[in-house]
# Entry
Amino acid sequence: MHSRLEAELEQLLDEPVCAAGAREQSTFDSYAARYDGRVVLFGAGKLGRKLLAATARTQIANIVAFADNNTSLRGTRIDGVPVLSVADAAALHGTSAVFVVSIWTAEGAGRFEERIAELRAQGCETVVPFGYLAWKLSGQALPHWAVDMPTKVLKQAAEIRRCARLWADESSQREFVAQLRWRLHFDFEGLPPVASGDQYFPADLIPLREDESFVDCGAFDGDTLQVFLDKCGGRFRSAVCFEPDGGNCERLRRYVATLPPGCRERIAVRQCAVGARDAGVRFTAAGDTSSRVGTGDMVVEGVTLDAALDGIAPSFLKFDIEGAEPEALEGARRIIAGGRPVIAVCVYHTQDHLWQLPLAIQALQPDYRFFLRPYKQVWELVCYAVPAERLSAGYAVD
# Structure
């Protein structure tokens, strides 16, 4: 790791756990105390409602209003709290309440700091990100995807330092340190710009081969498969798509059926979840990208890749399975250790996947080069594990 980035990393990890714990409890109060805990939540979606419910249980803050740009919500109430336009909320409460941006970064376009700037431009005196309130609420509101308590990060400092040594280029190292700072301090402005190009098939890093055997874990409705087929021009050996959600899987099958003969016969679709064991797993079927393994009343078939792909030698594995990535990697031990496929795995679903997933892959097969690229701010963060011979010609690693 470059010396400057290593120094930044050590400065972040040198904070005592007890000091971080005190910061978790005091940061929101330092902004809200002057307003007697009065809060306006900017964003009346899932996250805003989650924070409202948590504050109602704890009475840590007094939510006086929502501000939202969705005109269909104007004039309505959510659990008794009025939903106002941003302009009206600023006029009524801009100098008498702290405004908490409660829009999770995946739920809208643009960067998080732009939402803060929008409120300040309307005359809101004090604007803070939702993480400060979520820390204060602790277990009532967290974890929320990659947002969790800073103390949990610091307790894993040894693993973080080990992972920091894996990244093969300065862009990955810089992103890793920035992501760590965000997890500790909710610093959105310090996050680098998002990467361009295809999320799972960055041409500057991993050129696709004509004999690619692609495995799509979390295939959704075929969106990634379509990109793969476009990128390889229909020249590939095989593709196997795993999608446990029935609605998503049906749309995926309909898409495959539209493909020309000679292409669709090389694609297999399986309605099951990939994991660490060949056994049924609980599943929440939402019919969209929020479907999730491990929760809900439905039980779906669960398979390991080692068993499900017996007789297939995959060359490219993609994982975007809403937090179940550790179990899926465990179930692909033989494939990864013996076959060294390219791996593209999402590392944004929980706080510590950023370092735990690269370490898990490296433990299975040490002969990889690791890279980290963001495709949204915080959200859509992908780790690539690439054998040296699969890197783009002339690609320089540090």
Notes: The radius of gyration is 22 Å. The mean pLDDT is 94.
